[in-house]
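From the pipeline queue, job 12 of 40. The input is one protein chain; the requested action is below.

Action: predict structure.
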Amino acid sequence: MTDAEIKLELFRLIDNQPLDILFDIYDLLKTKFETSKRREINTVSDIDSQYKKMAKDQNREKEALEWIEGTLNTHES
């Protein structure tokens, strides 16, 4: 089922629903969206904190720089 087909089916399902059911559907979708958004923000925050932690590791940064320079030098011919 494509996203367009799912959207069309959702519209068909909710088209004739009473207002109280529509509110329930709205609350369900809104809660799901907000939860998903929070999870996304937390993931970005976690990744950001891990990058900051790695950047403080001087030995790891030196090794990474040497690896990058070695990689770049191998492609120069």
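Job complete. Residues 19-56 form the longest helix (38 residues).
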